[in-house]
Specification:
By secondary structure, the protein is mainly alpha-helical. It has a domain at 46-151. The protein has helices at 25-50, 56-65, 71-78, 81-104, 108-125, 136-149, 159-163, 172-175, and strands at 6-12, 15-21, 166-167, 170-171. The strands form 2 sheets. The protein has a two-stranded antiparallel ribbon with strand order 1-2. The chain has a two-stranded antiparallel sheet with strand order 3-4. A hairpin with a 2-residue loop joins β3 (166-167) and β4. The longest helix is centred in the first third of the chain and has 26 residues, at 25-50. The radius of gyration is 19 Å and the shape is globular.
């Protein structure tokens, strides 16, 4: 195996999957990070700049209309004033911050986790299984998880530098091992 080839292997529940990354894989991982970052940043920025984003109507109407298995939960959220107020701020600004984090590769795993969480909620809220259970929202959730799993913030991103920041003579990720769940 050449120095450019990376072998992956993981065992879960007694099953082992293994494979080899191609040298171009790094560029595709970067492209996925940037694609999701730009998409979320643009979506959030549009909502923030419009000043008229409101989740109440969507929460109360869309999931029941499309037969979502979580419709009752969404309706309850939409009928809870303080929660709607929270969502009206959290979704637009969350999308902006998730997008920025992915674009610059900073706190990438944290951003990807919240992106995947939002996509799971969108998947349940936009429930459309006419053509099967796998739709765009589900696929984007998996892209976010792949970005996190591959440590995409280390590829031309700030996380590569933040992880190595000297803290008391040690790189940050060695001094604070839990930071690996936020960075990378």
């Amino acid at each position: 195996m050449s120095s450019q080839e990376v072998r992956l292997e993981s065992t879960i529940g007694g099953f082992t999957a293994s494979g080899q990354l191609h040298t171009l894989s790094v560029w595709f991982i970067l492209a996925l990070r940037l694609m999701m970052g730009i998409a979320f940043f643009q979506s959030g920025l549009d909502k923030v700049l419009s000043g008229s984003f409101s989740a109440a109507g969507y929460l109360q109407n869309a999931p029941p209309a499309n037969g979502s298995p979580a419709a009752d939960l969404f309706v309850a959220m939409g009928e809870t004033g303080w929660f709607v107020d929270f969502v009206n701020i959290a979704v637009p600004w969350g999308e902006v911050l998730i997008g920025l984090g992915l674009i610059v590769g900073c706190l990438t795993r944290l951003a990807a986790f919240w992106g995947a969480f939002l996509m799971l909620l969108f998947y349940l809220g936009n429930w459309d299984v006419t053509h099967g259970y796998i739709n765009g929202d589900f696929a984007y959730m998996l892209v976010f998880l792949a970005v996190a799993a591959f440590g995409a913030g280390r590829i031309l991103g700030l996380d590569a530098y933040i992880e190595q920041y000297d803290v008391g003579g040690q790189p940050l990720v060695e001094r604070f091992p839990l930071s690996r769940y936020l960075l990378g």
